[in-house]
Amino acid sequence: MSSTILLWSLTLSQWMLVAAMSCATFRVLRGPRAQDRVLGLDALYVGAMLLVLTFGIRNGSTIYFEAALVIALLAFVSTAALAKFLMRGEVIE
Q1: Angle at the Cα of 68 from the Cα atoms of 5 and 58, rounded to 5 degrees
Q2: Which residues contact 41 (CB under 8 A, 6 or more apart)?
Q3: Domains of the chain
Q4: 3-state class of 25 per DSSP?
Q5: What is the pLDDT of residues 9-57, one digit of tens each?
Q6: What's the pTM value of the predicted model, to 2 decimals?
């Protein structure tokens, strides 16, 4: 019984994450300003990380959790670099 509930909840959460990622992709492509595009890209990274985590829970493999950690680190660095570029016009001083 609990295995079935876990499978259905993981499937539902994966579909919701895909819907959220499609909304974030729309914001990245159609954002009126660069700041909106950066926020959409950040939301897309978070959605991708959570989707990889749900795949890891479903498969029971630890490699997905390590991949999610790499996605989170790259997302943080790229968001900080893009924010600095939008504020100052250059990333490396």
Answers
A1: 20
A2: 24, 28, 78, 79, 82
A3: 2-88 (1.10.287)
A4: helix
A5: 999 999 999 999 999 999 999 989 989 999 999 999 999 999 999 999 9
A6: 0.87
